[in-house]
């Protein structure tokens, strides 16, 4: 399966490249949280953005920029919504965005590559869950798996992960210039892993 091939390729990346991939995937999930906040007036995206910005800066200049990963994790946890009290589909992608960033921070704190791989798994699972919950009433249960596999959002998620892995495989080292380039890629893409884009204020 494509996702299994993707996960093995992620395992084979160097640590620094794995961190960049995890950051990229987290960035693609944050708009889902921002959309949820916009609709419900619950939560605050600033801790998510702040955590990711701190991590980007750290990866770009590891000797100059020190980050308290545990404190940022606490801040993200404080604004993580719960499915209890939010009876809407959007709460799940919002929760997943927070979960992915928290896992990333834990991985950086523990120097654990397994956490960085888990970010990719959370991103894919978030797309799968969104499709299943959104389309379950229209698609027979025995056809749901095939429906997910063939869905454009899932295909897009797999393609984007593989494209970024391929790009990172071609980069001999992570540098400040590479970080700037990857962050610009997120901006240029302009949508989340669910295809969401918030209007600028």
Quick description:
This protein has 201 residues and is an all-alpha fold. The protein has helices at 2-12, 15-27, 30-40, 46-60, 69-78, 91-110, 113-135, 144-150, 152-169, 176-189. The protein is globular.
How is this structure best described in words?
The chain has ten helices and no strands. With 201 residues, it is an all-alpha fold. The longest helix is centred in the middle third of the chain and has 23 residues, at 113-135.
Short key terms for the protein model shown above:
201 residues; mainly alpha; YP_001051499.1 fold like; DUF416 domain-containing protein
Broad shape: globular
Structural class: mainly alpha
Secondary-structure arrangement, i.e. CATH architecture: Up-down Bundle
* Mean of residue pLDDT values: 94
- Specify the helix fraction band: over 70%
CATH level-four homologous superfamily name: YP_001051499.1 domain like
- CATH topology (fold) name: YP_001051499.1 fold like
Number of domains: 1
Please render the helix and strand layout as text:
Elements: H1 2-12, H2 15-27, H3 30-40, H4 46-60, H5 69-78, H6 91-110, H7 113-135, H8 144-150, H9 152-169, H10 176-189
Helix pairs in contact: 1-7, 1-9, 2-4, 2-6, 2-7, 2-9, 3-6, 4-5, 4-10, 5-6, 6-7, 7-9
InterPro entries: DUF416 (IPR007338), YP001051499.1-like_dom_sf (IPR023381)
Protein name: DUF416 domain-containing protein
């Amino acid at each position: 399966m494509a996702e299994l091939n993707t996960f093995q390729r992620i395992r084979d990346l160097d640590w620094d490249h794995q961190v960049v991939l995890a950051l990229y995937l987290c960035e693609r999930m944050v708009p889902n949280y921002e959309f949820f906040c916009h609709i419900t007036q619950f939560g605050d995206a600033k801790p998510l953005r702040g955590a990711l910005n701190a991590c980007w800066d750290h990866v770009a200049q590891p000797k100059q920029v020190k980050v308290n990963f545990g404190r940022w994790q606490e801040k993200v946890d404080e604004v993580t919504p719960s499915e209890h009290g939010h009876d809407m589909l959007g709460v799940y992608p919002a929760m997943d965005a927070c979960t992915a960033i928290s896992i990333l921070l834990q991985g950086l704190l523990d120097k654990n590559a397994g956490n960085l791989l888990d970010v990719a798994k959370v991103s894919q699972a978030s797309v799968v869950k969104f499709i299943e919950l959104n389309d379950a009433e229209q698609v027979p249960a025995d056809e749901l798996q095939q429906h997910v596999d063939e869905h454009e959002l899932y295909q897009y998620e797999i393609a984007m992960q593989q494209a970024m892995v391929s790009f990172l495989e071609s980069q001999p080292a992570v540098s400040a210039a590479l970080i700037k380039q990857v962050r610009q890629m997120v901006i240029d893409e302009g949508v989340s892993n669910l295809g969401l884009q918030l209007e600028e204020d």
